[in-house]
């Protein structure tokens, strides 16, 4: 089995990284639980950042669970994604979604992103 690490360089860490996505007129990909803003980067690999507010998921354990599920799915599908920066923005009701539903929605969103970038 091939190792799929989740390296530090695959994350949007600084406010400047996030602002770069917002300033680049990103493409929006939405579902009922989240919106992903995607903008091209010149790094050659995909990066991911999160914004999950307390209004969307009240408890830290809920926010951490959501991030953990998304990070794991991103780690496993990272090689298939184009070179883009993505900001994950949670919507109301995401805390009530179970892990399997989040994975299903993410799979669908990754496919939409791949189709859009190939155009």
TrEMBL record:
**Keyword RNA-binding on entry:** yes
Species source reads Catenovulum sediminis
Q: Which Pfam families does the entry mention?
A: Ribonuclease_P
What function is annotated for this protein? RNaseP catalyzes the removal of the 5'-leader sequence from pre-tRNA to produce the mature 5'-terminus. It can also cleave other RNA substrates such as 4.5S RNA. The protein component plays an auxiliary but essential role in vivo by binding to the 5'-leader sequence and broadening the substrate specificity of the ribozyme.
What protein name is recorded for this chain? Answer: Ribonuclease P protein component
- Could you say which residues form the signal peptide? none
EC number(s) from the headed UniProt entry: 3.1.26.5
UniProt keyword terms in alphabetical order: Endonuclease, Hydrolase, Nuclease, RNA-binding, tRNA processing
Q: Which family does it belong to?
A: Belongs to the RnpA family.
Subunit structure, as described in the record: Consists of a catalytic RNA component (M1 or rnpB) and a protein subunit.
The protein's GO terms of the molecular function aspect are: ribonuclease P activity
Catalytic activity field = Endonucleolytic cleavage of RNA, removing 5'-extranucleotides from tRNA precursor
Coiled-coil positions are none
